[in-house]
Design goal:
By secondary structure, the protein is α/β, with parallel strands linked by helices. It is built from 6 helices and 11 strands. The chain starts with 5 loop residues before the first strand and ends with a helix.
Length: about 240
């Protein structure tokens, strides 16, 4: 099922996993002026998490569980931020300005939250409330090179709580052949897993976020092969 703001897959079941993909799409709704430099940003990691949607769909299909994917670019509004976070709507990236975010009024800010932010989080709440899940698992991806520096890590497990579970998943991902580190290339300990923490905490279940290097998931066949390895690692970890 798809709406303007969200794509919902599968069904929640007791003891299952709820998967989320906050940055699944680089879609920009009508009414936003997209110039050529911003179009380039949208095609790159600034616009969305390349490959993450394919991984999420494959995981949900194998698990026969619920998945919630955002359908709006993170440049329009980032659903993995608190609603009052300064980076919810960014006017500039390291690679240039965002043409439709230069002068976002308070009214436009509120309208974007109502139109795209609130429906995403309501959909996650609905999936969580439908059946008692065992895990909330958020899927993201990251660039192989950041500002000229190559990243050797292939998979990162982000967490702010549930340290033992996260460490087990790190080890089982390594067992699947991924170069894996805890809280890399970003750290959940400094608040960078907002969506998973918000919903996992509310429903009292463990939550983790995975970051996968984008060159490993840049096509659908690659992403689905990675999803199978991640799924095996999740099972082996007891998650």
């Amino acid at each position: 099922m798809k709406t303007e703001a969200v794509e919902r897959l599968g069904r929640a079941r007791p003891g299952g996993v709820v998967y989320t993909c906050e940055h699944a799409s680089n879609r920009v709704p009508r009414g936003h002026r997209v110039d050529a430099p911003t179009r380039a940003l949208l095609r790159d990691h600034w616009g969305y998490d390349i490959g993450a949607a394919w991984v999420t769909r494959a995981l949900a299909r194998v698990e026969d569980s619920a998945a919630v994917l955002g359908r709006t670019s993170r440049l329009v509004l980032d659903v993995n931020r608190a609603p009052d976070d300064a980076s919810l709507i960014v006017a500039h990236t390291h690679d240039g300005a965002v043409s439709f975010n230069g002068a976002v009024s308070a009214g436009e800010h509120a309208a974007r939250v109502a139109r795209w932010y609130a429906p995403f989080h309501e959909a996650v709440d609905a999936a969580m409330a439908a059946a008692p899940a065992r895990l909330l698992f958020s899927v993201h991806s990251f660039t192989p090179v950041w500002r000229g520096t190559p990243r050797d890590v292939e998979a990162g497990v982000l967490f702010d709580r549930h340290d033992d579970l996260a460490e087990r998943l790190v080890e089982t991902l390594r067992g699947e052949g991924f170069r894996t580190e805890p809280n890399e290339p970003y750290s959940g300990k400094v608040g960078l897993i907002y969506s998973a923490a918000r919903h996992g905490t509310r429903y009292g279940i463990p939550y983790l976020e995975i970051e996968l290097r984008q060159d490993l998931v840049r096509t659908r066949p690659l992403a689905e092969a990675v999803a199978a390895r991640v799924r095996r690692a999740l099972l082996a970890s007891g998650a």
